[in-house]
Amino acid sequence: MSAPSIGGASRDGYGSGLLRIAEDPRVVVIEADLGKSTKSCHFRTKYPSKSFSMGIAEQNMMLVAAGMAASGKIPFASTFAIFTERAFEQVRNGIARPELTVHICGSHGGIHTGTDGSSAQSIEDLAIYRTIPGMAVLHPCDDLSAEELTVQLLNHDGPTYMRTARNKIARIYDHDSVGKLKIGRGSVIRSGNDVCIIACGVMVSQALIAAGELANSGINASVIDMHTLKPLDTELVDSMAMSCGCFVTAEDHSVIGGLGGAVAEHLSTGITVPLEMIGVRDEFGQSGESSELMSRMGLTSEDIKNSALKAISRKSS
Amino acid sequence: MNSDSGGMGIAVAELEEMSRRCRINILKMTHKAGAGHPGGSLSAIDLIVALYGTKLRIDSENADWDDRDRFIMSKGHASPAVYSILNEIGYLSEDDLMGFRTLGSVCQGHVDMKWTRGVDFSAGSLGMGLSFGLGCSLAAKMDDSNRTIWVMVGDGELQEGEVWEAAMAADFHSAGNLKLIVDRNGIQNDDFVNVQMEVGDVASKFSSFGWEVMEIDGHSMKEILVALDWATSVKNVPCVIVAKTVKGKGVSFMEGNPAFHGKAPDDDELRIALEELS
Q1: A190 shares a domain with A156
Q2: How many domains does chain A have?
Q3: Torsion over CA of A91, A97, A98 and A104, rounded to 10 degrees?
Q4: Do A94 and B169 touch (CB under 8 A)?
């Protein structure tokens, strides 16, 4: 894999992915005023007859998407992650219950969103959508992987929720490596046998930094980009449990019910090895620069590194 | 049934007789289940019978026909009304109806497209059907199809904000193939609508949202047929039929009685009701 470069934000990848699948006559884009932010705006500009503005009305947007899905279309509906939550029951009852294939994208997920403050920083979206039967939940880590996974959604049956992030971060994949991604399969980015760091979204880059620093101390960490939280790649988790013997999960999301929760739910019924969770500790964010907030809320590579050391120390000798 | 002309093309007297049979089934299935919503089913059934009998382009041999008209029953608790008409069409058997609300039944408590052949929407949570209908409408327009999307809501349901999100969006998107029917029976779960939250001049509200509006007596088969013809003739904007109805219509002790919004008839009540309908 080539050295990380600064690419776009994962939301840019969603916009690029939509353009790549736009020629499919079934694909339609639905917006609730925030297309410039979620990046569906590029599709809307190029394909106005396949794009539908629902105004600032998320509940209606979700059911319009459901009606289109029931009529043979493949709708991609987007708004901020936090505002998808306003229509949670619409997603649950109107989309998922009848098993309609609607792809929802929630951008600006997590504390990383920054200066807009806590009202815009969804820290619970991954958890709530995980609870809906049959719903796949994705959270890619960079623009290229978001683009690739968006393209793959075209052939995914059933409702999905994909969270993207607002800000540009270091690119994890290049144009070759991104092609190996597959919905539902975790991506091993770095291999080591002392501890496994499972991360998603913007925390993948932090996990790689932490793994590099651990290596300087002679500790070899695996790093997994778990871009699909549901269905969780339990086979990979089990394999890592056997080879590494302990885990750290890292997510820009509440530690309740997200990636850490998913991994914990799985491990607790099988291979019980130490698990430390990096995530938001049951509190709301505030305004501030992303780096300031991530540091204040314990979401840095340093926090991951310390948790890795703790997880290793908890292994039974 | 002729899928080209739409509906069963039957006369008023036959439609009224079909309504009577549906009313009997509504009462029988709720009685058998010991649960359900007879009141709002009885208020809606004349409108539904007229729609299926004269307008809805469906294929009795193929419920999944892609280009069929859609009937989106947003007030999904009135499922017995829908099941009774699907029985008339032949999609559901008498046995299916009598399994209403039991484990594994195709007749779920609230209408559900995943469970029931011929049901176009999974309802049960009020306020969502018009939005879903708008999605069907926009898809039909994209396909250059002439399929028509009919949606039924209750008047209490108009208290849900999403209905008005959809009403605004339907006008904005010129959803001329979208036809709404409001079952204005004046009663909701807890009490009369004007006690819980009066929805006021429904016709004026929709009119101010850019919709074409007609108000009718929702139990006069002749008025209903005129309204359905009118709705079909409206082409470029969404339209709504505001149908004044009586909750529990056809059964004396249920008419206008909030108690029968969500209560099934007991043995004696069923006997009296069936006598009245015979």
Answers
A1: no
A2: 2
A3: 30
A4: no
For B159-182, how does the pLDDT look when each residue is reduced to its tens digit (9 = 90+)?
A: 999 999 999 999 999 999 999 999
- What is the extent of the structural domain holding A274? 184-314
A188 and A148 share one domain? no
- Which residues on B lie below 8 Å from A76 (Cβ)? none
pTM of the model: 0.96
Which of B101, B129, B134 shows the shortest CA–CA distance to B115?
B101
**Residues A156 and A188 both lie in one domain:** no
Query: Is residue A230 included in any domain, yes or no?
Result: yes
Closest Cα in chain A to B115: A98
ipTM above 0.90? yes
**Contact across the interface for A63 and B112, Cβ inside 8 Å:** no
User: What letter represents residue A220's amino acid?
Assistant: N
Task: Spot the catalytic one: A31, A58, A251, A276.
Answer: A58
CATH class for the domain made up of B12-277: alpha beta
Please report which helix (H) or strand (E) contains residue B63, including its range: none
Please report, for the domain that includes residue A195, its CATH number: 3.40.50.920
Domain identity same for A137 and A189 = no
Q: Which residues of B touch A75 (CB under 8 A)?
A: 135
Q: What is the pLDDT of residues B126-155, one digit of tens each?
A: 999 999 999 999 999 999 999 999 999 999
Q: pLDDT per residue over B201-212, tens digit each? A: 999 999 999 999
Same domain, residue pair A85 and A216: no
Q: Where are chain B's structural domains? A: 12-277
| B60 residue type, one letter | S
* pLDDT band at residue B1 under the 50/70/90 scheme: very low
Residues A154 and A200 grouped into a single domain: no
Mean pLDDT over all residues of chain A? 96
Mapping DSSP onto H, E and C, the string for chain A reads CCCCCECCCHHHHHHHHHHHHCCCCCEEEEECCCHHHHCCHHHHHHCHHHEEECCCCHHHHHHHHHHHHCCCCEEEEEEEHHHHHHCHHHHHHHHHCCCCCCEEEEECECHHHCCCCHHHCECCHHHHHHCCCCCEEECCCCHHHHHHHHHHHCCCCCCEEEECCCCCCECCCCCCHHHHCECCECEEEECCCCEEEEECCCHHHHHHHHHHHHHHCCCCEEEEECCEEECCCHHHHHHHHHHHCCEEEEEEEECCCCHHHHHHHHHCCCCCCCEEEEEECCCCCCCCCHHHHHHHCCCCHHHHHHHHHHHHHHCCC
Does B195 touch chain A if contact means CB atoms closer than 8 Å? Answer: no
- Given A163, A192, A225, the domain boundary residue is A163
- A89 catalytic per annotation: no
Measured in angstroms, the CA of A98 and the nearest CA of chain B are apart by 5
pLDDT band at A2 (very low <50, low <70, confident <90, very high): very low
Residues A205 and A237 in one domain: yes
* Cα R_g (chain B), whole angstroms: 17
Q: A104 with A216, same domain?
A: no
Residues of A at the B interface, defined by Cβ within 8 angstroms? 28, 49-50, 52-55, 57, 59-60, 62-73, 75, 89-90, 93-94, 97-99
**Where residue A44 sits, what CATH number does that domain have?**
3.40.50.970
